[in-house]
Design brief:
Length: about 500
Amino acid sequence: MANATHSPKLSASLDGQGVPPRVRFCPSPTGNPHVGLVRTALFNWAFARHTGGTMVFRIEDTDAARDSEESYNQLLDSLRWLGLDWDEGPDEKGGPHAPYRQSQRMDIYADIAKRLQDAGHAYDCYCTTAELDERRDAARKAGRPSGYDGHCRDLGAEQIEEYRAEGRTSIVRFRMPDETITFNDLVRGELTFTPENVPDYGIVRANGAPLYTLVNPVDDALMEITHVLRGEDLLSSTPRQIALYKALIDIGAAKDIPLFGHLPYVMGEGNKKLSKRDPEASLNLYRERGFLPEGLLNYLSLLGWSFSADQDIFSVADLVEKFDIADVNSNPARFDLKKAEAVNADHIRLLDVPAFTEACTPWLRAPHANWPEENFDQAAWEAIAPYAQTRLTVLSDITVNVDFLFLDQPVEDEASWTKAMKGDPVALLTTARAKLADADWTSPEALKAAVLAAGEEHGLKLGKAQAPVRVAVTGRTVGLPLFESLQILGEERSLQRIDAALAKLAA
């Protein structure tokens, strides 16, 4: 970190004032929700629930060109799907600090900006873009910091009038104090920023629109946020916000400075920060594939935090009970899709059978299913579900595991057919059909004995003997336990499919 020094992390008390913590999650409604954003929401939510504090959900929608109602509604829907509830927010939940959408708070920001200027904490800056660029280039060439040089800090009335006569417009800049700023980051320990590396900064555009640098801290102050838990990418703005908080306290708009904790980057392929453009970053991807909310939250919580040295799988309730922001690691966390899938698979296996059956049912209906709606048989599904539960990584896997039950004919997989139909499959299938026709179809063991006996007649072990039967009935060489599958499919349909396979072989 070029502009800060740090010492080891200090103990993270819940707050410095003895009041219940108040945290906030404040996304911008742009594009689809991504997993890094969800990780931030999760850590805030877990901290609030662990400490008995308050979770504030706030929408930062001051960028009309990028924000959309569709994205806003997606955010609400995604958080509800994940079970990350809030105590105050922009929906019907409301709260004592409403409104919770920045686009509805513009009068508040204008008032605060004026009060900051009146108190001398901010000033009008008339520098043009060209002038700023020229002075920055000169500073860089001279080896000096290239931030704003304070040119308009102490303009006299005559100079201001001259600028206005030229038709110049002004932005509002915050006046940074000439002092070192030190704070204890709840994740990274004590950090120190020297004044030459934290120049004055803009808080209001020339058109009067407030900037993020103003609205975010102002909302945190007015909503009495005690802990700001956010991404590492915002760390460099923290000394500016701390200085602004002191000014807000001075004008009576804030009570205290919140504690800050900066969460580690989530990295993608090639050790690059996971961005919205990365396919694996989209929350919708995981929802559409059939991740369980519990499985996804479990994995995301491991991106910078751990439950224990020897336990990666735990419930959301366990997470809430154990979570401590002081245990968050400052090192970047790598998003590993295979690990996420493995964690989700464990959560699928932890469901009781009725819950698993219910969770999968939407995937067995349109638009996910590739069979007619009328073909779906709830009784057959409930019978096969216990055998399918151990085979899934995500819920969408269920369709290829059970489609043989609901398709009129099994899928045509030529690779599976070629692999299974070796040697003399006609002889084997003919014998197996005869023995299955005489078997007790109420018993999977009896069906297994029939296929085993057919294999023995042709000098084949069970594995070799059942492969042609499996492909004839299900269309695939791998799948759910064969003899339980045969029993649930039923004698008539199973034998019809073996007949169809024999006809195909004869042709």
